[in-house]
Design brief:
Elements: E1 13-16, H1 29-35, E2 40-43, H2 54-66, E3 70-75, H3 95-112, E4 116-118, H4 130-149, E5 154-157, H5 171-181, E6 186-191, H6 192-197, H7 202-209, E7 213-218, H8 234-243, E8 250-252
Parallel strand pairs: 1-2, 1-8, 2-3, 3-4, 4-5, 5-6, 6-7, 7-8
Helix pairs in contact: 2-3, 3-4
Length: about 280
Amino acid sequence: MAELAGSRHSLPYDVNLSILFTEIPLLERAEVARVLGFDAVEYWWPFEVAAPEPGEVDRFVSSVTDAGLSLIGLNFFAGNMPEGERGLVSWPGREAEFADSVHIAIDIAERLGCRSFNALYGNRIEGEDPSAQDELALANLDFAATEAAKIGAQLVIEPLSGAPLYPLRTAADVVAVLDKLGRDNVTLLADLYHLATNGDDLDAVIAEYTPRVGHVQIADVPGRGEPGSGSLDIEGYLEKLQAAGYRGQVGIEYKPTTASADSFGWLPRERRGSK
């Protein structure tokens, strides 16, 4: 795939190692990212359970430090993602799991310098009152935000596509939660792929909500492949975000249409480092 012709923004990239390089074991992916020129990474929850054994956590931390990479973002435990679960924030009865993952994520962040946590809101649960789920979500988010603030970190909340039971689909849906919560360190994760797929007007989102954005992620539309595999003007939207005042990272979070290592032709090597 051809390289971008003269990038119109200077926002730094990081690569999400939970969705990329899935053909190799998770703990080996950081080194591959380093070889390809990246110095910053992010992950979904990198364990199968909310409270993994300490040794498993140590091995994950070592995989990042041994590669000399910065950890930009980390998700809290979101349940069984392959089975369609999308977070515990609003799931009654799973508060202890959520709290466990918050404490472990903050421990990892202190060791790796990460200061951003993705709190997936969770699906609507059959038989549960949606308003009660939303009240639980506010309580869980308030708890997590308090814990994150102790290390100067933020939470990000994102709209999702492809998850029909997930209630946050637009930037406005997330901002409504942020307004109810009223915490300065809880922000919008603007995933351009999810927003565009759900029909959000990205120009309007950028114009209205950029000050509320704590992190940005990208993939092309349709298909969620690498930039250039679809029709979304990713470069143009990143330029507009920067012009509107966004200065954070851009998380590369796509499903490559070829082998992961071969899918970065759109991004010149000199643009892959965040420093």
